[in-house]
Design a protein that fits this description.
Number of strands: 8
Number of domains: 1
Strand order of the largest sheet: 1-3-2-8-5-7-6-4
Strand content: 25-35%
Oligomer: single chain
Helix content: 25-40%
Number of helices: 7
CATH architecture: 2-Layer Sandwich
Length: 253
């Protein structure tokens, strides 16, 4: 969905974010994730957007088969300050992402027109997604939470990644069903960003999300977080936002 949009993830070009992600690391390689921020046009709603998204999915099957996409709608946050709808899309690599964008620019004009009839969008941003705790299967419908995080002065991105992996493992050990990523800003967004990356947590359902909430609040979760993150990174910048997720398509692997 290569449409103009207001960025839900306020990403910014940053050399310090770009450089460390070129290093080898355990787990899946960093992957590009694009974000589009939109509001519905008068008289349009989610049903209209899904019609355009379904057409996009069919086009992608033959033109960018490795591209995955999800539509997010806000559930917890300052709703008046959040977009009505957020599109996230990802490919396995920068090479695959670039080829897909070339194909869309060359042959996706009709589909773009369908999106433009439904949503009004104003910016387009890109992050590098680093896997923290892999999901049991490809991410589908469910819930996602974004937290703004900063790396401590005496720490670095690799120590933050290790701390997040420890924390995610601890929560799973307590019974949570979380999957986690770190989204590092790469392209686009606002220049006055006051945090380093997004901590991203996904769940298959609201039941899973609030089971993890209960573990965090009353089951020892927050203590595990303080132990793992102490002196390394902090995710206390602002209040996390939580979104409902509808999968548009799962890219081929």
């Amino acid at each position: 969905m290569k449409i103009k949009i207001v960025a839900a993830l306020s990403l910014v070009v940053s050399v310090c974010s770009w450089t460390p992600l070129t290093h080898a690391q355990d787990g899946a390689a960093p992957a590009p994730v694009e974000a589009f921020y939109c509001s519905f046009r008068d008289g349009k709603d989610m049903k209209d957007l899904m019609k355009a998204a379904d057409r996009f999915s069919e086009w992608s099957r033959n033109n960018q088969p490795g591209y995955s996409a999800w539509i997010l709608t806000p559930r917890f946050g300052q709703l008046g300050e959040l977009p009505e709808v957020l599109w996230l899309g990802s490919s396995q690599s920068g090479d695959a992402f670039g080829k897909g964008l070339d194909a869309y620019v060359a042959g996706g004009g009709d589909i773009q027109g369908e999106f433009d009839k439904v949503v009004d969008c104003h910016a387009h941003v890109l992050a590098s997604s680093v896997e923290v705790a892999a999901p049991d299967g490809p991410p589908g419908d469910g819930v996602v939470m974004f937290s703004q995080c900063s790396i401590e002065d005496d720490s670095d991105w690799s120590e933050a990644l290790a701390a997040h992996r420890q924390y995610a493992a601890d929560l799973r050990g307590l019974g949570a069903s979380n999957s986690n990523w770190m989204f590092f800003p790469m392209l686009g967004g606002e220049a006055d960003r006051d945090f380093d990356y997004w901590g991203v947590s996904t769940f298959n359902s609201w039941s899973d999300y609030f089971a993890a909430y209960e573990i965090y609040v009353n089951g020892g979760g927050w203590q595990k977080g303080m132990e793992a993150m102490n002196g390394v990174a902090s995710c206390a910048q602002g209040t996390p936002t939580v979104w409902g997720v509808t999968q548009v398509r799962q890219g081929e692997r």
